[in-house]
Amino acid sequence: MQTLQPTKDPAKEKHHNPVVFAAILIAAIVVVAVIFNFIVGDNKFLDPANIGVIISHTIWPIFVAWGLCFLFACGYTDLSIGAILVLGSFSTTLFGNWLGFPGVILGGLIVGALLTFINFNVFAFTKIPSWIAGISLAMVYEALAVALKVNKTTSSLIYTDMDKGLRLLGKMPWSLVLVAVGFIVAYIIYNRTTVGLNIRALGGNKDVAKALGINILKTLLWVGVIAGLFIGLAAVVQQSFAGRTTVKTGLTSIYMVFQPLAIVLLAQVLQKRLNIIVAVPICAVVIYGVFNLLTILGIPSGTLQEAFLGAFMIVFGIFGQRGVKGVVK
Questions:
Q1: Cβ-proximal residues to 320 (8 Å cutoff; 6+ apart), any chain
Q2: Using an 8 Å Cβ cutoff, are 250 and 143 in contact?
Q3: Cα(134)–Cα(132) distance, integer angstroms
Q4: What is the spatial distance between Cα 13 and Cα 208, in angstroms, rounded to a whole number?
Q5: Is residue 272 part of a domain?
Q6: Which end of the chain has fewer CB atoms at under 10 Å, N or C?
């Protein structure tokens, strides 16, 4: 009797290999970049200096995007991240000027982890929808930043620029080294640890996760710590790159989350073929490359570029949520 074997399509199986898919994706990005460079002319787009500008602008959003990956994996949304970045940037400068380079890193990590941990305590114990609580917390953190700015005792500390000797992590190649370390840590935690598996199980179905013996409260608090550390590192890089962060009011801090959010939404589109932690840096380069191209073409930021960003987020969100049944959080 002949045994029926399932038919296999070697071509399709090859594309399911994430390494092959990543290589094809990067090759496609390079081809498109070459085409755009030809359209722009004068080798402006692929000029090494311009490529350096694109990459340098992606560093801190990559860390925020990795933090968002953990938030979204457990089914929560936190819109106070932008305000946390502002306070984390203040703390980075303050601790850096006091303690030197170790203080630069400690300042961002402490504020990022502490405030995000506080947020998840609020989410877990109050049962308020996370997006509502996040907006409320954003207003609290913005008000705290304003209070520090207008207070006579602390205003001089807020207006102080970070010492140029402490801004190594805002420059290449040190910022790329930090991204490489961050990538390894994010990948291992997300894919190879019990905490990472519990976080994703929680986002899949909270009741099933609880039935499997996962401690829901403990897992949520771990999300706050892990995501907060990545947000804290984003504050370190952002402040090291810019030297000073301005106070945000009227919920304008939320705007700081839009570009990292677009990165995550695009990464979710690729998630079926490529691990989302791996997809984030690739998507960051794509998105910032597009905005850099728009700038070269004379489309100013603050107007049409933001319209493009909004359109991208809608499109990425539609494709990323294909096949999802029920209400999307």
A1: 265, 266, 268, 269, 271
A2: no
A3: 5
A4: 31
A5: no
A6: N
Does residue 172 lie within any of the structural domains?
yes
- Asked if the peptide bond before residue 173 counts as cis, ω within 30 degrees of 0, the response is yes
Nearest Cα residue to 181 out of 173, 140, 295: 173
Residue 222 lies in a domain: yes
d(CA 303, CA 78): 26
Q: Which residues of 123-136 are buried (b: 16+ CB within 10 A; e: fewer)?
A: bbeeeeebeebbbe
For 231, the token pair is 């947000």
Provide the whole-model pTM: 0.86
Looking at residue 65, its pLDDT comes to: 96
Both structure tokens of 275: 């691990």
Does 306 map to a domain? no
Q: Is the pLDDT of residue 276 over 80?
A: yes
Alpha-carbon span 25 to 266, nearest angstrom? 13
List, for residues 198-246, the tens digit of each pLDDT value: 998 888 777 787 888 888 889 889 999 999 999 999 999 998 888 777 7
Report the domain count for the chain: 1
Question: For every residue of the chain, which 3-state class applies, written as one string?
Answer: CCCCCCCCCHHHHHHCCHHHHHHHHHHHHHHHHHHHHHHHCCCCCCCHHHHHHHHHHHHHHHHHHHHHHHHHHCCCCCCCHHHHHHHHHHHHHHHHHHHCHHHHHHHHHHHHHHHHHHHHHHHHHHCCCHHHHHHHHHHHHHHHHHHHHHCCCCHHHHCCCCCHHHCHHHCCCHHHHHHHHHHHHHHHHHHHCHHHHHHHHHHHCHHHHHHCCCCHHHHHHHHHHHHHHHHHHHHHHHHHHHCCCCCCCCCHHHHHHHHHHHHHHHHHHHCCCCCHHHHHHHHHHHHHHHHHHHHHCCCCCCCHHHHHHHHHHHHHHHHHCCCCCCCCC
